[in-house]
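Task: fold both queries, return tokens.
Query 1:
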Amino acid sequence: MGNSQRREFIKRSTALTLSTGLAGFPAIVRGQSGPVKIGVLHPVTGALSYSGQLCRLGATIAIDEINAAGGIKSLGGAKIETLFGDAQSKPEIGVSEVEKMNAQGVSAIVGAYASAICLATTQAAAKYNIPHVVDVGVADQIVERGLKNVFRFAPGYRAVSQQAMNYLHIMNTLARKPAKTVMIIHEESLFGTGTANLLSQQLPGMGYQVLEVVKHANPTRDFNNIVLRMKALNPDIVIPANYYNEYALLVRTMKQQNVQPKAIFSVLGGGASSFKFVKEFPDVANGIIDCNHWYNPKDARVAALRKKVEAIKDQYFTYEVFLNYQCVYLLADAIERAKSRDRDAITAALAASTWDRHFMPFGPTKFVDGQNQGARPLLMQVHQG
């Protein structure tokens, strides 16, 4: 059947369904066959579009692989049909996209990258009992509201911050404590503000003096004044917590103004754990430390996926890509076990998940109040590329 014939068939069959009243049948009747509709919702335009597009790429690769391997086998090989949504880097737009996805009958949603957007989309999805797998959004408020439909695969910023400070303190102690003062630079949204608040609370109790906590807007195109302030304060450690563009510009400005702290120790640094950043700014990136989402480098499956991603022009194997890739497989596993397109059945299957076929440095997936208890970050350092 050609494309024009297919469109005409769909057009006529839709008209027939509406004219005969079949559209009014209960959802359980209409949902027993056909594809499994999954919403893939990210900020693919606006200030966060670079990361949002990478998130979409990771989810798309996983869905294509699952469909090519025979679809959801417990549903007779049903294919996953992707419904894309663009949050446009705004929480309120993310909510309107969830409304559209609900009207289109999605069984679940994966997304929506930024903490502020995830906070809004998970709440909106809860109105319709749509299971929502959170890919990245690190704000712990996302999983602390008692919403039964929310499942975050990766660690939140409280766990990451605590792990990062433990790592920092161990390294500083082994080095005979050369670092005593800290300056925190963070972006203004829920992610950056929440992370900075946690760090500024934890560090004094570990013997570090927080000289200043500086917030910046998204987007920010000039860090000269912030770096001049940094130069005046002369902190031993600079801790950035921001998204890719701002991260890259901040550390480049530090390089230009010859600001050289004892360490740039990132916590969920938007650029530090990025092959793009390392390739484009090797002299700036060298030596930077970051506690962030990362895969298990010993897992052989990683190399094949990275090769697939990097075969696409101008694409990099980032945490946005592989977290969404894994989240789709987590969701597909739940649908397989639920043997159903029903939202409540999928939610129950996610809640009971013990999925361990990921390539993250996690234990088996186990959700408590929506948070994966097996999730943990890794500490990394850029060294000569």
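Query 1 returned. Query 2:
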Amino acid sequence: MDEAIRAAHVDAVRTDGYTIVENAIEPELIAALTAALQRLERELAIKPADNDFEGRQTVRIYNLLARGAPFERVPVHSSVLPIVEGVLDPGCLISSLSSIAVDPGEKAQPIHADDMVIPLEKPHAPIVCNSMWALTDFTAANGATRLVRASHRRPNPEYGGAYESVPAEMSKGSVLIWDGSLWHGGGANTSDARRTGIAMNYCAGFIRQQENQQLGLAPHLVRSFTDRLQELIGYGVYRGLIGHIDKDSPANRLLKGGGEFKSIWDN
């Protein structure tokens, strides 16, 4: 990516809280991602969630890096990653990789900030930088992400409050990139067609443990620990959101063979 173009996008995120990279993604990759998501939706029998945040007519597929090609191409894409590195730094990490398909009739998602569960006073330096890849056109009618310009410099919004916002309208193949403190939410889909995007999210590299407890400790040893010790080394989920695996806790998924878990969205 040309350095002047990169710098302009990074500056837009710092000033307005977001930027749009037009025609960022190759048509071949768009087609491959679309086909893979359609296959996964069928094979995994994915259905909409039953809460206001995730949407009752929105299909979400989580943990896409575990699903094989072509998803490994997304986090390192040359049209996106250099901008994210400029907002955070080159030591940034993948936070999550999922898809969001908003079907006709879906209501607007509550306005929120992606980092609002993190108890830091605002404004603060960026610790989260997220992106939405448009695999279809994003329009005001089909549920384009709603943005509250420059709100990343303000305290957190009242969740679901009424705020003046603008739709991030963009053509298929474009990418919206925003500071995780920006107030935003998915729009209502009043059209007759699905709006599909990939949410490629990053966090600052310092948002992790000094020692990698999950990889440094054998699962058979961790199973012998108390529940609280398992949580302390990273097998819990912070505030029902940060650290989940497919909307389940790592302890349930990797240590206990199942169990009850409610996400922040379910609560």
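Both queries returned. Flag for query 2: The chain has two domains: 3-203, 213-256.
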